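Hey all, sorry for the wall of text incoming. These are the four entities for the joint prediction.
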Amino acid sequence: MDLSIGEVAERSGLSVHALRFYEREGLFANPVRRLSNGRRIYHEEDLEWLAICTKLRSSGMPLAMIRQYIELVRQGPGNEHERLELLRRHETHVEERIRELQETLAVMRYKVRVYEEHVARGEADRLWNPSHPDAARTDSHQECRPPQGA
Amino acid sequence: MDLSIGEVAERSGLSVHALRFYEREGLFANPVRRLSNGRRIYHEEDLEWLAICTKLRSSGMPLAMIRQYIELVRQGPGNEHERLELLRRHETHVEERIRELQETLAVMRYKVRVYEEHVARGEADRLWNPSHPDAARTDSHQECRPPQGA
DNA sequence: CCTTGATCTAGACCCGACTCTAGCTTCTAG
DNA sequence: CTAGAAGCTAGAGTCGGGTCTAGATCAAGG
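and here's what came out:
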């Protein structure tokens, strides 16, 4: 039932270094316990929490925010509002990020399509080419009118 | 028609420091020209290119990749395929990132909803709470069956 | 008994992308 | 003529998020 840091590393996908680092950073709710010889012991719950952490991280939540969350948890019941507020804040942030990426993607797709056509016609070199002022100018106009669906 | 670094900073939204930094990093296609007194002079095209750079950056393209692109441009016509390949690689990357964010978002929304319900019923403290093994376990099961639409 | 491998700590190092500082020059307005 | 703003360079510092190293300890197997 007890897991060594190596096992946790393997199962969580984090390095042992990262696990110790996370601990120093206060990202564990309950202080990591030790064997009499000083070695860390983890349990299933730790793995579950780490899975959540990794998910939050992959969505761009900074460690500092995860720490804030876990600090609220440590303070015990009574601050559920703050916890929710924090999560919703991040939700909003992720939504905005998605929109930003989608917009860039639309512009890029459009440009790539235009470029492909030009290349096909042998008139290449007229896209995102800052050493070709003519093209740059033409193109940046196009950029102002991205695909209708954007 | 000539722009000083300060003007470019203001109009591009980048700091003068960042502009000099970008130049050192080789992110300009044509070497930035200087006045006889050593001061940099920029032109509209530079602003246009910087706008593109900023867009690419905001979509997560690393400076190193922008540099690769601009190096292809500097080499002149003939490598349009490589340029397109580079842009498509990034496109794919952005698509994947969007998917990743959408997935996390779905999970977060679900969890937040569950949490809200629990809080409403006064049974709070049962979500993403690694010091409450019981809750953690229940919850991580829920996590394995995210909203049907995910 | 000895090696191998996992662990420990403290602290150095890395990378990306800037940001800022020091010390100097140069332009512009009063 | 002079103060202040804006520029210049080289190089140091920052921040986030780790990663790695050195040197010590410990447990197990041959």
